[in-house]
Amino acid sequence: MITLYSMPSSGNSYKVRLLLHKLGIKFKHIAAEYGSGVTTSAAFRALNPNGKVPLVVLEDGRTLAESDAILTYFGEGTRFVPQDKYARAKMFEWMFFE
Q: What is the pLDDT of residues 44-73, one digit of tens each?
């Protein structure tokens, strides 16, 4: 099972949780809200030296940071990543809006 470190109050973290739920991907969630100490711990910094969430730890131990990279990874090959060039660009337009 994958592990997702995310901040419950963050829109970028929410996007990842939403996609995982929509795809039916089970995951362990570790809440990393400001002040929780999760992202400043040595264990977390070993996974992601920049100390940011969301962060996914895949079943094989590899990690993915940054919401848009995570969304693209899990969305690839599903209805959430269009094959049409323009539609895919519109998807990225929505993802990159911050």
A: 999 999 999 999 999 999 999 999 999 999
Region of 48 on the Ramachandran plot (φ > 0 left; ψ -120 to 50 alpha; else beta): beta
Whole-number Cα distances in Å, 11 to 41, 48, 60, 68, 95: 23, 19, 27, 12, 11
Calpha distance 69→33 (Å, rounded):
21
Tokens at 57, concatenated: 């730890």
Angle at 21 (CA atoms; ends 18, 23), nearest 5 degrees: 110
Question: Please, which pLDDT band fits residue 13 given cuts at 50, 70 and 90?
Answer: very high
